[in-house]
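Translate structure to sequence.
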């Protein structure tokens, strides 16, 4: 022991046996093995027996944390260490807590630490005297490393790595492309240095073993596997090499020692050195390889990081491929199926089962280790329950079947702990903080989340280090670099973040504040005006916006929820915005302005998804709330309420609100708001069948919008113009307007208005008699409406498709779509559209020989159309009532309905209705003549 109380020890006695402080192995009653961090902590304590060591000193010396870092890492590690080496962890005999000061170590017996007999990893190794090449390399040694790789020279053609390894025992699945590249690199040149780099759990060890097995004939000298997972420095690496090559340690200079290893390996023939789990000592291993004399043996390394040597070939090993849209089969699926079939011979999944398997491997991010560990539960759970438990994080990914997985990889968390142990304090803070993200994020978001913890410039260095260590994944999206965490790593990092509640609170608040920027007033206006911008800017951030909306961070959460609602309003499904808006509205501490914005948005969403009464009530409340906010927000509330009233319940009241909003926007100098009000007022004229007035207004609005370059609203206005032109019989002009509208909507990526425009194009082709083209338009319209998720557009598309199918004589299919439309329209309180669907229902009843049911449907339709109505609809109802009266022989009633039909003031009746009117008149004439 020196004057500082430091004693060099190689093993310590405890009640349960002896702990090897080089490898972390515990001999005696327990078969536990210490992780690298646990081993480093115990070694530091054991070398200072009986000395009280402060928590700050331990965090600094073992983890490299500075005094400003606040963490529970020491507490958690000490707890795990006590469970492994103490007989009763609640009453520790060796790892003693000294009040609030720190910890001290007390070995068994009289507290004396046994002196080392001989180090197994020398500080100055020397070669033995002139070793001769063995005539036959040994098959194995008695000692194995934690990765399951035998520490000795193993000829691949004999039992050892080639046959008894878990790789061949379990069967190797997938990785064909990676294997081809690995084999080409290892065979292509002598002295090759190849590193398999990837995150924990991607199966780098199994891939290295499989490549070695396949290339056994190329390495007659065998393979020398060296596990470095418990090694902490260069001396430990040399010791691992010595054990793998059966060369005893010595006391000579490193270069001469490496030369002795070289002579031994070359005497045996071409050999392959495998350095497994090298991330913790990548620098030390790189220094040894750099100093290795020529000719160097072929070296294969598995690591989370590259070594950084000039001649190093790096093969990035990511997760297995996942199913694509076109196929449920993939490497990840094949691995899962293989493992389940080994447990349940003869099992074959159904098509539904295969889809569930695809969902399971997606939940596991395609990580081979996770798939290995999850598949074993198929003995107890069916596939759907296994999937559901995975989704709810209620499936232990641990305790793999005996012999199936190396001890170090017996749990997925253990594999990630190994990577965590190699990180610096700042890198750990960064990784834990990044667990707040969902999906992907960019460097700016990462800097915002860590701002105040590390500083902006250092954040980039942390990101680079975590990417280099394969703990962060990178990908390109729309030309921009995005970062993401594999789900298993993110949940592990969340656990570390939970150990420091204060840091977790700060990180979540900064995350919500950053993503609230997407819902600022300025951003919301731009999102409304530019659909393409809304989709491209919000799509990659959607997962994080959802998290921020539910974070309970006051106005920050409210603004994030508004941005999410803007996205769903554009891209659908709109109903998905409702729970997020509800969660944001329940957030304590909301400002009055944020509450008003949320109420406006929620009311507008509710009326679109069919909850019309609730939506209108919310919009009326929002108008009252907005009276005490800014004039612009009040005008926005009046515009939204006026639009809803115009198309749902009270056109007169809606027009009054729209006029107030129009005056307010004009006084504020908001030309876009003015254009929206004018376009909505023109839509009201169109809804009330004032077609000439609507066309004049719409042409004026188009001029304003083209000046403002508001392409989304321009496309909507063109579509409304096409409808007015169609109702006036201007079919050519209507087709041009509708096609121009459709092009703009598709260019903007607006699925909702694409659906509406296709619907109107289908109506145009119906009137032209082109039923095939109309069918294509209606089918595409329904598909787009379902994708967007608005009940109104889906109902209209279904109704029109039912009418077309009736025209084609497909009564059964027509009835299916019509029932779907009627159910939705009844919820939506859209009387005009509901009346049209009931007229269609009457036609179906009449064709099916049920005149009584047809008359009932027409009576209800006539009542719904008694308001502003649509003259063509009223005309069609009277014609149908006259036809039914004529068929039952009531000539007087038929003549009365004919007179009412002629009195309808349709400016440009549908040509098909004119033909039906003539048929009714002819039928009455014939009936009178025959009478």
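Result:
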């Amino acid at each position: 022991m020196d004057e500082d109380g430091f004693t060099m020890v190689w093993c310590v006695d405890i009640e349960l046996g002896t702990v090897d402080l080089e490898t972390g192995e515990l001999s005696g009653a327990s078969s536990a093995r210490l992780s690298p961090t646990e081993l480093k902590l115990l070694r530091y304590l054991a070398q200072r027996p009986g000395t009280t060591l402060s928590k700050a000193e331990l965090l600094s010396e073992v983890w490299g944390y500075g005094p400003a870092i606040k963490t529970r890492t020491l507490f958690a590690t000490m707890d795990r260490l006590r469970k492994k080496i103490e007989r009763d962890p609640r009453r520790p005999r060796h790892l003693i807590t000294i009040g609030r000061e720190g910890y001290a170590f007390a070995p068994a017996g009289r507290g004396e630490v046994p002196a080392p007999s001989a180090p197994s990893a020398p500080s100055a190794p020397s070669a033995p005297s002139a070793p001769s090449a063995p005539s036959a390399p040994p098959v194995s040694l008695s000692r194995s490393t934690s990765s399951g790789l035998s520490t000795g020279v193993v000829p691949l053609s004999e039992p050892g790595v080639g046959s008894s390894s878990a790789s061949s025992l379990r069967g190797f699945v997938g990785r064909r492309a990676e294997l081809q590249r690995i084999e080409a690199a290892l065979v292509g040149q002598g002295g090759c240095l190849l590193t398999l780099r990837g995150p924990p759990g991607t199966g780098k060890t199994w891939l290295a073993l499989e490549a070695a097995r396949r290339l056994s004939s190329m390495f007659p000298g065998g393979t020398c596997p060296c596990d470095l997972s418990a090694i902490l420095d260069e001396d430990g690496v040399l010791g691992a090499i010595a054990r793998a090559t059966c060369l005893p340690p010595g006391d000579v200079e490193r270069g001469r020692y490496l030369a002795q290893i070289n002579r031994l390996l070359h005497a045996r023939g071409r050999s392959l050195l495998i350095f497994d789990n090298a991330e913790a000592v990548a620098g030390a291993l790189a220094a040894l390889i750099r100093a290795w004399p020529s000719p160097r043996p072929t070296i294969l390394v598995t690591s989370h990081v590259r070594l950084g040597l000039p001649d190093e070939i790096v093969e990035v090993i990511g997760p297995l491929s996942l199913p694509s849209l076109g196929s449920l089969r993939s490497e990840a699926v094949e691995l899962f199926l293989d493992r389940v079939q080994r447990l349940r011979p003869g099992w074959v999944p159904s098509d539904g089962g295969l889809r569930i398997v695809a969902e399971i491997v997606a939940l596991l991010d395609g990580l081979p280790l996770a798939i290995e560990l999850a598949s074993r539960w198929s003995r107890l759970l069916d596939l759907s329950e296994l999937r559901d438990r995975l989704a709810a994080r209620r499936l232990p990914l641990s305790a793999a079947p005996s012999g199936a997985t190396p001890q170090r990889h017996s749990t997925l968390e253990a594999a990630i702990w190994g990577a965590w142990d190699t990180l610096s304090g700042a890198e750990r803070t960064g990784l834990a903080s990044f667990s707040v993200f969902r999906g992907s994020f960019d460097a700016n978001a990462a800097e915002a989340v860590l701002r105040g913890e590390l500083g902006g410039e250092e954040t980039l260095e942390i990101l680079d280090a975590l990417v280099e260590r394969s703990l962060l994944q990178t990908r390109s999206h729309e030309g921009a670099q995005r970062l993401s965490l594999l789900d298993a790593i993110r949940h592990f990092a969340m656990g570390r973040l939970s150990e420091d509640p204060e840091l977790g609170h700060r990180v979540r608040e900064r995350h919500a504040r950053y993503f609230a920027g997407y819902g600022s007033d300025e951003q919301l206006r731009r999102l409304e005006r530019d659909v393409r911008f809304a989709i491209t800017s919000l799509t990659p951030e959607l997962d994080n916006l959802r998290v921020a909306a539910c974070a309970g961070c006051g106005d920050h959460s409210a603004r994030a929820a508004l941005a999410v609602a803007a996205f769903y309003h554009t891209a659908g499904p709109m109903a998905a915005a409702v729970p997020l808006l509800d969660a944001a509205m329940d957030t304590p501490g909301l400002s009055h302005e944020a509450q008003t914005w949320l109420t406006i948005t929620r009311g507008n969403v509710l009326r679109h998804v069919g909850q019309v009464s609730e939506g209108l009530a919310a919009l009326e409340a929002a108008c009252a709330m907005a009276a005490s906010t800014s004039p612009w927000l009040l005008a926005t509330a009046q515009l939204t309420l006026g639009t809803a009233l115009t198309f749902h319940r009270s056109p007169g009241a809606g027009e009054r609100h729209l006029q107030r909003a129009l005056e307010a926007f004009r006084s504020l100098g908001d030309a876009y708001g003015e254009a929206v009000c004018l376009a909505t007022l023109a839509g009201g004229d169109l809804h009330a069948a004032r077609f000439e007035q609507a066309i004049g207004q719409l042409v004026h609005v188009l001029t304003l919008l083209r000046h403002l370059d508001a392409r989304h609203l321009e496309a909507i206005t063109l579509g409304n113009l096409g409808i007015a032109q169609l109702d006036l019989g201007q079919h050519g002009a209507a087709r041009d307007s509708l096609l121009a509208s459709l092009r703009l909507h598709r260019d903007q990526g607006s699925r909702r208005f694409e659906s509406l425009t296709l619907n109107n194009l289908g109506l145009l082709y119906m009137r032209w008699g082109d039923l095939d083209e109309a069918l294509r338009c209606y089918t595409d319209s329904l598909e787009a409406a379902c994708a967007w998720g608005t009940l109104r557009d889906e109902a209209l598309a279904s109704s029109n498709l039912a009418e077309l199918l009736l025209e084609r004589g497909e009564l059964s299919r027509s009835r299916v779509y019509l029932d779907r439309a009627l159910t939705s329209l009844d919820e939506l309180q859209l009387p005009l559209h509901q009346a049209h669907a009931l007229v269609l229902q009457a036609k179906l009843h009449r064709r099916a020989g049920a005149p009584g049911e047809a008359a009932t449907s027409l009576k209800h339709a006539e009542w719904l159309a008694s308001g502003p109505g649509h003259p063509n609809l009223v005309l069609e109802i009277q014609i149908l009532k006259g036809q039914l009266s004529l068929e039952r022989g009531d000539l007087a009633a038929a003549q009365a309905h004919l007179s009412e039909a002629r009195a309808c003031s349709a400016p440009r009746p549908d040509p098909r209705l004119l033909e039906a009117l003539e048929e009714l008149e002819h039928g009455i004439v014939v009936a009178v003549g025959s009478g």
